[in-house]
Amino acid sequence: MTGSGEISILHLLLEASIVVQAVMLILVGMSITSWAMIFKRKKVLKAALDDAKKFEDRFWSGVDLSKLYAEVSARQQADGLESLFKAGFKEFARLHKSSRQSAAVMDGTHRAMRVGLSREVERLEQDLPFLATVGSISPYIGLFGTVWGIMNSFIALGSVQQATLSMVAPGIAEALIATAIGLFAAIPAVIAYNKFSHEVEQIESSYVNFVEEFANILHRQAVSSGEAA
User: Per the domain annotation, does 183 fall within a domain?
Assistant: First the structure.
């Protein structure tokens, strides 16, 4: 209590039962971790969007594909569209040397790019399952702390002959804090999960469109080479 008789939140936290304190610590830890993942995912997805736009501008600028492949291969790491382009062109060049059947060449090229697409989407979706978990279970963890705290408050009332509101209020207040912390952890996680899931879907859609457009270009090259042979 403060000097004016008001209940101090800090006092309630310090005086809470071990179980309620453990629940609060778990929720605070989940909240801190989820915020770290939110900032990390935001940075990764923004970089993916920017890199995709830059590579598409370069790809559709009319640059020779062999030259572009050499530029991408020279980099230590290729992500996003660069990774899909690299995987597709590499497999196309390898199969085109050993086979003049355009269908077989394009089938292998498509498989290589689909594998690369799956890996890229998996990379973009990293951390999202944790955010979904925090968003779904945090309120229930907080509710458990609330139920436990209220239960202890009523158990304590059984040992007294006359119950007053001032005796019950601190226990109920500390219990409700657990619910508040649970909501504080859950709400940002749910908002971030929905936002990032939508962004991943948009990026994946742009990747799929690029794969199909790139495959069409390679198919025309394979057909023209087969006819020339």
Answer: yes
- Please report, as a single letter, which amino acid is at residue 179: T
49 within some domain:
no
Q: Is 53 a member of any domain?
A: no
Give pTM, 2 decimals: 0.82
Find, among 224, 226, 211, the residue nearest to 52 by Cα: 211
- For all residues of the chain together, what is the average pLDDT? 85
Distances (CA, A) of 35 to 183, 200, 201: 14, 18, 22
Neighbours of 224 (CB within 10 A): 11
Amino acid 1: pLDDT? 46
pLDDT at position 170 is 66
Q: How many CA atoms lie within 13 A of 20 on its CB side?
A: 27
Asked if residue 154 belongs to a domain, the reply is yes
Q: In terms of residue numbers, what domain contains 92?
A: 18-41+65-228
Q: What are phi and psi of 127, to 5 degrees?
A: 80, -20
Residues 79/214/107/66 CA torsion (nearest 10 deg):
-80
CA atoms of 210 and 208, how far apart (whole Å): 5
> Which residues in the chain come in under a pLDDT of 50?
1-5, 229
